[in-house]
Amino acid sequence: MVLALWHCHLCTDAPEAWQPHFQDGASLAYEGITELHNSVIYFVVAIVVGVFYILTVILLRFSNNGVAFKYHTHGTILEFF
């Protein structure tokens, strides 16, 4: 009985394949690291979504512009300077 409880206690915080979250922290420093990660990840996701939105808007608005296409394919003069 004691061996079964000891084994169960060891396996509760073992890493799993494709684990989506961190393991439980054993020290206060690691708890602080996980809290910092959880706080910063929201800002990172917001920045990434904003950048992809701006990139999509730019690509959709300026992809059919004939002037940009003309200078994109016939800009060999810039290569000499």
Tell me what the structure shows.
By secondary structure, the protein is mostly helical. 65% of the residues lie in helices and 0% in strands. The chain contains three helices and no strands. The longest helix is centred in the middle third of the chain and has 35 residues, at 28-62.
Q: Helices and strands, in N-to-C order?
A: HHH
Largest sheet: none
How far from one another are the termini? 82 Å
Number of helices: 3
Mean pLDDT level: 76
Overall SS class? mainly alpha
Secondary structure: number of strands: 0
Query: What overall form do the CA principal axes indicate?
Result: elongated
Helix content: 55-70%
Q: Which percent range describes the beta-strand content?
A: under 5%
Low-confidence stretches: none
Give Rg in angstroms.
26 Å
Summarize the structure in short.
It contains three helices and no strands. With 81 residues, the chain is mainly alpha-helical. The termini are far apart.
